[in-house]
């Protein structure tokens, strides 16, 4: 096993999908661990050093959403959800609970591999280079080099995309970004998913960094978002 190889956990109850996707991922040089249900997925995740998870939502024991929630308690590992659900609400819910992206079944294994590569690029820790940014007398502190964010002195957990979204907005005070611009800067120009993904990330970010006294992210209706220091 090469030391720099990425470990991917592939979770699906359909053996054919497991076999096909594993073959494509291994051809790209990834180490692939597999699980056929939610409990097995959590066991593998807790035992192995997993860098990425491809997670089916329709599992025979625990729903994929529950598996995602349990993993998000302890880790920000990138998660790509697989789903047969085409309803917009279901997709947004998946993003709200911490998924990085989703693909609707049936899907192209080649596209899945491309999505995995793109997410790895986006979640690289070499996001931006800057110093420490403080807002409202230390209410919010962003240490970009350390990729740490503190709210009232308490370290808060952000996903890599949430962190990059925050830094893009915070380093451009008052600048209005359209959803398309934020998608390019945060999710990558090759992102082809749902354009309202940004809205879900903004919602999560607001929940983590804002309170009744300090609001930072402003919605510019019909356009997008901007960051303001009260």
UniProtKB/TrEMBL annotation:
The keyword Repeat does not apply. It comes from the Bacteria. One of its GO terms (molecular function) is transcription cis-regulatory region binding. The keyword Lipid biosynthesis does not apply. Residues 130-229 form the OmpR/PhoB-type domain. It comes from Caloranaerobacter azorensis DSM 13643. Residues 130-229 bind DNA. InterPro entries: CheY-like_superfamily, OmpR/PhoB-type_DNA-bd, Sig_transdc_resp-reg_C-effctor, Sig_transdc_resp-reg_receiver, WalR-like, WH-like_DNA-bd_sf. This is DNA-binding response regulator, OmpR family, contains REC and winged-helix (WHTH) domain. GO terms for biological process: regulation of DNA-templated transcription. The modification 4-aspartylphosphate is found at residue 56. GO terms for cellular component: cytosol; protein-DNA complex. It holds the Pfam family Response_reg. Keywords: DNA-binding, Phosphoprotein, Transcription, Transcription regulation, Two-component regulatory system. Residues 7-120 form the Response regulatory domain.
């Amino acid at each position: 096993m090469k030391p720099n190889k990425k470990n991917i956990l592939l979770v699906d109850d359909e053996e054919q999908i497991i076999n096909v996707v594993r073959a494509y991922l291994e051809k790209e040089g990834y180490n692939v661990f597999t699980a056929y249900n939610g409990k097995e997925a959590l066991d593998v995740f807790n035992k192995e050093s997993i860098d990425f998870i491809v997670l089916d939502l329709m599992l025979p024991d625990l729903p994929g959403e529950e598996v995602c929630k349990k993993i998000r308690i302890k880790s920000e590992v990138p998660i790509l959800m697989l789903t047969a659900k085409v309803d917009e609400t279901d997709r947004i819910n998946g993003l709200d609970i911490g998924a990085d992206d989703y693909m609707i079944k049936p899907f192209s294994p080649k596209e899945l591999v491309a999505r995995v590569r793109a997410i790895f690029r986006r979640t690289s820790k070499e996001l931006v280079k800057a110093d420490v940014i403080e807002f409202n007398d230390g209410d919010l502190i962003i240490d970009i080099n350390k990729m740490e964010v503190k709210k009232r002195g308490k370290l808060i957990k952000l996903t890599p995309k949430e962190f990059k979204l925050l830094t893009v907005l915070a380093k451009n005070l008052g600048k209005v970004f359209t959803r398309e611009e934020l998608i390019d800067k945060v999710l990558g120009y090759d992102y082809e998913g749902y354009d309202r993904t940004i809205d879900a990330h903004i919602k999560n970010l607001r929940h983590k960094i804002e309170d009744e006294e300090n609001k930072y992210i402003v919605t510019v209706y019909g356009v997008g978002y901007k960051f303001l220091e009260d």
